[in-house]
Design brief:
By secondary structure, the chain is of the alpha+beta class. The protein has two domains: 175 residues, Fructose-1,6-Bisphosphatase, subunit A, domain 1 (Fructose-1,6-Bisphosphatase, Chain A, domain 1); 123 residues, D-Maltodextrin-Binding Protein, domain 2 (3-Layer(aba) Sandwich), CATH 3.40.190. The protein has seven helices and 15 strands. The protein has an eight-stranded mixed beta sheet, sandwiched between helices. Strands 12-11-13-15-14 form a five-stranded mixed beta sheet, with helices on both faces. The protein has a two-stranded antiparallel ribbon with strand order 1-2. Helix 2 packs antiparallel against helix 3. The chain binds 2,5-anhydro-1,6-di-O-phosphono-D-glucitol and manganese (II) ion (MN) (2 copies). The site of one manganese (II) ion has 6 residues, from strand 5.
């Protein structure tokens, strides 16, 4: 079933916003398919974005595409992008419910030039009072589009997580609902940082490597690719705090919140770690580019952290 039919009963303004993000992703995926042929690999300039990363050409173009389509809906008041230092405040042109979209237009930038999975991540939150720092529990829709072997959209609407695959005639078609009950034993973390990990994280990962466990490691380095595999196969993904990065790396509003919502709605858990089992969605953001440590995955795997770190 096509996405607009699948969600025909939700608020029409919300559906408009979802469809604008679908159209954006279709435009981005057309570029992704032919990056090298269109001279779209490489850095945009030497300029850094608000998180201190060098922007890739595709980061900048993807951001422009998303802004264009969301502005056209007239259903958004504020956009929060990884690639814009400040919130983008849109003109109010309709009296319908207005939404704020927080998004990472292109996640996994370091994988662009080697043709590994990359994607777009977002959350949609009703926003009556033009606030810029909305909490994770107010999010009504979270989603990501994975530009991988297939282009796949994963959306959490009404607390249910569904998968849609882009067809040859450019329509997102429903292919299933996700419950995080995969049985594969996988841990996913950048082990190059292990010398900087705190004791809790060393013990947690050592537990996965102990003799006799059946775990294997997988790490793409694109959060949405690693989380997608976790949702479908099981296991856990983390980007923890460490001695070099006490706040972790991933950003609260447009990486951690949407992925935490999707994982929780699929039956898993997403917590801070760093000796806290606070839910990611309970973070009260103070800055639009704030970072957070994150551990997410099946309840079973995340519980292991609480036990090992004796929370
Ligand atoms: P972005 O490309 O949007 O800046 O995000 C990159 C993030 C995330 O996708 C991934 O999980 C993480 O960076 C990987 O970081 P390391 O290379 O430090 O492992
Ligand atoms: Mn990202
Ligand atoms: Mn990005």
């Amino acid at each position: 079933m096509e996405i607009s039919l699948y969600y025909s009963k939700i608020d029409p303004s919300l559906l408009k916003v979802i469809l604008a993000l679908c159209v954006s992703s279709i435009e981005i995926e057309e570029l992704v398919r032919f990056l090298a042929l269109k001279n779209l690999q490489g850095d945009h300039s030497n300029e850094q974005n608000s998180s201190g990363d060098i922007q890739k050409k595709l980061d900048v173009i993807s951001n422009e595409i998303v802004i264009k389509h969301l502005t056209q809906t007239k259903c958004c008041n504020i956009l929060l992008s990884e690639e814009n230092e400040a919130p983008i405040v849109l003109k109010k042109e309709s009296k319908t419910q207005l939404y704020t979209v927080a998004y990472d237009p292109l996640d996994g930038s370091s994988n662009i030039d080697c043709n590994a999975p990359i994607g777009t991540i977002y959350s949609i939150t009703p926003n009556e009072k033009d606030e810029t720092l909305l909490g994770g529990n107010q999010i009504v829709v979270a989603g990501y589009v994975l530009y991988g072997p297939s282009t796949e959209l994963v959306l959490s609407v009404n607390n249910t997580v569904d998968r849609f695959v882009l067809s040859a005639n450019k329509k997102y078609l429903h292919v299933g609902t996700i419950r995080l009950n995969g049985k594969k034993k996988i841990y996913s973390i950048n082990e190059a940082n292990s010398n900087s990990w705190n004791r809790d994280m060393k013990n947690y990962i050592d537990g996965y490597k102990a003799n006799g466990t059946k775990y294997t490691a997988r790490y793409i380095g694109s959060m949405l690719g690693d989380v997608h595999r976790t949702l479908l196969y099981g296991g856990m993904f983390c980007y923890p705090a460490d001695k070099k990065n006490p706040n972790g790396k991933l950003r609260v509003l447009y990486e951690a919140f949407p992925m935490a919502k999707i994982v929780e709605d699929a039956g898993g858990s997403a917590i801070l770690g760093n000796n806290s089992k606070q839910r990611i969605l309970d973070i009260v953001p103070k800055d639009i580019h704030q970072r957070t440590p994150i551990l997410l995955g099946s309840k079973e795997e995340i519980n292991k952290y609480s036990i090992i770190s004796k929370l």
